[in-house]
Amino acid sequence: MDGIFFLVLAFLTIYTSIKLSFYGDVLAKESKIGAAFVGGLLIASITSLPEFVTSISAVVIDNPTLSFGDIVGSNMFNIFVLAVYNIYFFKSNFFRNTSKRYLIECIILLTDYLFIVLGCHNILVNVVSIILFFAYIVYTYFVFKSDKEEDKQIEKKTKHIVLKFIITAVFMVFLSVLLTYQADKISHLYPKFSSSSIGAMLLGITTSLPEVVTTFALLKLNNFDMATSNMLGSNIFNFLVLAISDLFIKDNYIYNYSDKFSMFYVFGGILITILFTLSIISKSSNKIFYIVVSWIMIITYLIVWYLQFV
Predict the structure, then answer these.
(1) DSSP sequence for 175-230
(2) Are 297 and 83 contacting, i.e. CB atoms less than 8 angstroms apart?
């Protein structure tokens, strides 16, 4: 029964997040906001709101391990999805046609990972969250720099969209909190799995599905850059969420609540992010190269999943 209730909440959260993304996209277009801002900041942060709410909620209910697992599991899943889409959209040359300018986002992501690893090993743990905050500010700067749209005047017809956006956002926050409580309950019912595994496998994937759907829709329109910007932006925002969650923990740091299962997702995430980075900067004429790299990324993710059960 608990599993069924979780699935119902997950479905409603995903549906609400997708509607929120739609309203956010319409609001951005009617407000004449640039595409870089839409994909890299607005849609990316909107589709990551479930991670934000679930992560903060997990810390509030005194389960920081669930929160950490949610974030690192979600981030690895997002890059895994890009690899799957590269194979699915093989004829469109997704990775090959993605702009090299996203190398900046990849470097920011890998830098975040590096400091998180240091924090998890109690090295520079007191400054990791500060670094994650700073990294997001740097990312925001590059997004605005690449955004060439200048007219940002909001038109009158956005009024109803704003109202729908706010109502949907409030409902999604409510659902995300319930989802976190249910995941926490499941983690206690099945002690065989650590809270980080529950966070990565249940919350991490569930809260990432809005990004999955949004990215698929963008790729169907051959909008490779915005699709990539959405996923990478979501991952960078997720690490910002991790830093914010850290603020809610007294006399400790969230990075000290990592365990071997969540670290599998951390190192797995580093590996497939590096492989993705190599894919978008290589611009190889050999299509097989991109397929092989994508399969390595997919297999890496599946291995990390398998390690949760052994």
Answers:
(1) HHHHHHHHHHHHHHH-TTS-HHHHIIIIIHHHTTHHHHHHHHHHHHTT-HHHHHHH
(2) yes
Q: What whole-number distance in Å separates Cα of residue 113 and Cα of residue 108?
A: 9
Run of H or E residues at 99: none
pTM, to two decimals:
0.84
Tens digit of each residue's pLDDT (9 = 90 or more) over 16-68: 767 766 776 666 566 555 555 555 566 667 767 778 888 888 898 888 999 99
Residue type, 5: F
Sign of the alpha-carbon dihedral angle for 189, 190, 196, 201: negative
Measured between alpha carbons, how far apart are the two ends of the chain, in Å? 26
Which distant-in-sequence residues (6+ apart) come within 8 Å of 146 by Cβ?
Answer: 36, 40, 101
CB neighbourhood size of 72 (10 A): 30
Which residue carries 């949760």 as its tokens? 308
- Give CA–CA dist 259/308, Å, rounded: 11
Residue range 2-147+156-307, CATH number: 1.20.1420.30
pLDDT (0 to 100) of residue 147: 59
Select from 73, 56, 111 the least CA-distant residue to 277: 111
* Top-ranked range on mean pLDDT: pick from 45-54, 200-209, 239-248: 239-248
